[in-house]
């Protein structure tokens, strides 16, 4: 070869120092969201004036060392204000601008203490409650770690201290300062992609007792259900203020992954042990699809855990230094290994998302030109800085003989794994019940995701039960018949009919509780329904459950 190999996972030659530094700084992709909490009642100049709760009001700096730079004292021009009870909570983003992509609870072997709302970089973030800014800026964890940058707002709700936390903004995307008084609906920041983030999103936390005061993180969705849009923001429709909220009584409150995309994989097109992981990894950021990851794995290893002559390992062919950055124990078996399908594919997804972030930025600033997808693939083979240095697709030497054919090979494999119509391409014929069934069937095989889906299609890689039904009706009727978001709310629409009279397109409800149905599906005829059953399962056609009742929309 006339030029050195540049493959960041297969080359036996050292990576350029700049690339190595970048990748190790980017260890955020393997980090967890762990932020220290401080004792006491006041932080960063924010005064909590609550009799019988935290003691006398103070204006002292938090003793927490973990909060680091976020615990900067307020600017002299921003004197701390005593907290007064907040008005009603509002959504932290405007309707239609973000999608709930990862809920509160266990995730990837650690505690996910908030809810993620994915949206483009620069999407406005609004204060959810009235209060004082307790922290704004760097968390002190260092570049690429945790939130990296955040805003913490202390408030009073029901005569108790609470904090709302907003994470992952870029430094220039924070518009408030410690000590500043804010109102619910104030524009406080913009969505970024800093710290331990696989894609641009707002990480939103709600702490009862206060974040810095040793309080308890609670599921934000229990507070945001039914919350109004931020002040001054126009909702997209009568139910838009609940689009961020999952069905409140699903069959199983499972956990989702990333953003829309998991349903794009053609069912049965990959070895069974890979399917779940391609769906999850292909949902981490909007630029990367499960079909791309499957095509790339086929090109790299043919779905075999192999070791290349250069020392690249596993199904997705990582060199050890790069694996240190992107590899995690995603399958939860106690080891992090290139030979574990889940670990390998999730690392592949994280690396591709970081590539996409870099390449998209270069395209935006004009330093790189070309087809983004082709450049992502070329970067996976040759390294991002080969693309940066070339200003686009590199050529000459190994780039011409290895990288360019590699790109074409991966692109040619993608249709083999891509699910036709999985990006919402279904076209209704007459808006009738058969169209509702057909729209739902377009996503057979897409994973169940708690809170997933809505009128626009899958989110978090899939659907929950009422997200699927809302999508199917919206799609079949070209948006004219917009169902509410939850199964209980959908039960209030239309007219109940005997199950014996159900026709394709009617909704069928089950899992009954005192508050109403906890599950909903779409009747498909002959005693069958199309539904998103439960965590670990996929959208499927199955027999109607015994306790179900029918409703015609």
Detailed description of the structure:
The chain is an alpha+beta fold and 553 residues long. It has twelve helices and 20 strands. Mean pLDDT is 76; it is low at 1-80 and 235-262.
Summarize this, please?
This protein has 553 residues and is of the alpha+beta class. The chain has twelve helices and 20 strands. Strands 1, 4, 6, 7, 8, 9, 11 and 12 form an eight-stranded antiparallel β-sheet that branches.
Give me the CATH fold name of the largest domain.
Glucose Permease (Domain IIA)
The 3D shape can be described as globular
Instruction: Give the low-confidence spans.
Output: 1-80, 235-262
Biggest β-sheet description: 8 strands, antiparallel
C-alpha-based Rg, rounded: 25 Å
**Helix fraction by DSSP (H/I, runs of at least 4):** 10-25%
The pLDDT mean sits at 76
CATH architectural arrangement of the largest domain: Distorted Sandwich
Tally of contiguous helical segments:
12
Distance between the termini: 66 Å
Based on secondary structure, the structural category is: alpha+beta
The total tally of domains equals 3
Beta-strand segment tally: 20
CATH class of the largest domain: Mainly Beta
């Amino acid at each position: 070869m006339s030029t050195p190999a540049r493959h960041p996972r297969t080359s036996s030659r050292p990576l350029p120092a700049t690339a190595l530094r970048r990748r190790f700084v980017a260890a955020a992709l393997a980090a967890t969201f762990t932020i220290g909490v401080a004792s006491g009642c006041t932080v960063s100049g924010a005064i909590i004036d609550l009799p019988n709760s935290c003691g006398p009001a103070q204006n002292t700096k938090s003793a927490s060392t973990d909060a680091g730079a976020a615990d900067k004292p307020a600017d002299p021009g921003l004197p701390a204000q005593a907290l007064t009870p907040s008005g009603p909570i509002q959504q932290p983003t405007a309707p239609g601008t973000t999608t709930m992509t990862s809920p509160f609870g266990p995730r990837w072997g650690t505690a996910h203490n908030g809810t993620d709302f994915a949206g483009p970089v620069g999407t406005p973030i609004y204060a959810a409650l009235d209060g004082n800014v307790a922290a704004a800026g760097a968390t002190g964890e260092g570049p690429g770690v945790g939130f990296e940058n955040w805003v913490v707002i202390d408030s009073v709700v029901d005569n108790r201290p609470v904090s709302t936390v907003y994470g992952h903004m870029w430094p220039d995307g924070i518009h408030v300062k410690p000590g500043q008084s804010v109102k619910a609906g104030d524009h406080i920041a913009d969505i970024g992609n800093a710290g331990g983030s696989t894609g641009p999103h707002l990480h939103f936390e709600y702490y009862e007792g206060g974040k810095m005061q040793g309080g308890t993180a609670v599921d934000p969705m229990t507070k945001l259900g039914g919350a109004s849009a931020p002040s001054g923001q126009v909702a997209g429709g009568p139910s838009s203020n609940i689009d961020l909220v999952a069905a409140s009584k699903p069959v199983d409150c499972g956990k989702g992954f990333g953003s829309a995309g998991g349903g794009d994989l053609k069912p049965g097109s990959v070895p069974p042990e890979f399917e779940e992981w391609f769906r999850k990894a292909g949902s981490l950021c909007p630029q990367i699809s499960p079909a791309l990851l499957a095509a790339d794995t086929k090109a790299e290893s043919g779905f075999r855990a192999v070791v290349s002559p250069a020392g690249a390992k596993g199904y997705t062919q990582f060199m050890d230094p790069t694996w240190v950055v992107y590899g995690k124990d995603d399958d939860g078996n106690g080891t992090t290994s290139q030979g574990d399908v889940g670990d390998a594919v999730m690392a592949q997804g994280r690396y591709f998302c970081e590539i996409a972030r870099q390449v998209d930025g270069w395209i935006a600033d004009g330093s790189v030109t070309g087809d983004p997808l082709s450049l992502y693939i070329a970067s996976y083979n040759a390294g991002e800085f080969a693309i940066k240095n070339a200003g686009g697709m590199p050529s000459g030497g190994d780039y011409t003989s290895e990288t360019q054919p590699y790109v074409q090979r991966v692109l040619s494999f993608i249709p083999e794994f891509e699910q036709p119509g999985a990006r919402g391409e279904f076209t209704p014929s007459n808006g009738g019940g058969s169209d509702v069934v057909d729209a739902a069937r377009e996503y057979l095989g897409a994973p169940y995701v708690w809170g997933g889906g809505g009128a626009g299609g899958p989110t978090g890689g899939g659907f929950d039960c009422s997200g699927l039904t809302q999508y199917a009706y919206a799609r079949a009727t070209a948006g004219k018949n917009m169902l509410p978001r939850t199964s209980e709310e959908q039960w209030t629409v239309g007219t109940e009919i005997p199950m014996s009279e159900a026709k394709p397109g009617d909704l069928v409800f089950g899992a009954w509780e005192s508050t109403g149905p906890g599950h909903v599906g779409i009747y498909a005829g002959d005693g069958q329904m199309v539904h998103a059953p439960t965590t670990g399962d996929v959208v499927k056609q199955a027999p109607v459950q015994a306790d179900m009742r029918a409703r015609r929309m």
